[in-house]
Amino acid sequence: MPDDIFGDPLPPSERPARKHQLADHDQRTPDQRIDDILNYPLFYELAEILPPPSSVGCPRGYPPVTYLLIAAMMTVTGSKRSALGTLSSSQWRSLRAAVRRHAGRRAAILLPTHAPSRHQYLYV
Question: Helix or strand or coil: residue 3?
Fold first, then answer.
């Protein structure tokens, strides 16, 4: 901490606050962060209030929760391509289970057995 012009340290009340450094046990892995997204109940409420697709053009092959998840995963993975790659591997089964848990069986039945491609996401 810088001293004043006379070399005395500043009192603790006048010292600037330090940032809290996260320890290794405080940090979350990308898979844990994606699971947090999947298990957040307001995520599914937000997907319900999204506007419906327009009647013009090719119909969407996936419900809105899928596209919302991909958009949220882009903050975790850093890009659309890596988000869709992660989603197509192991996270798709987790998504189906989370949708069944939070939005009901009817919403889970609307999900296809495979994840969307990058082209399908960009089309929406």
Answer: strand
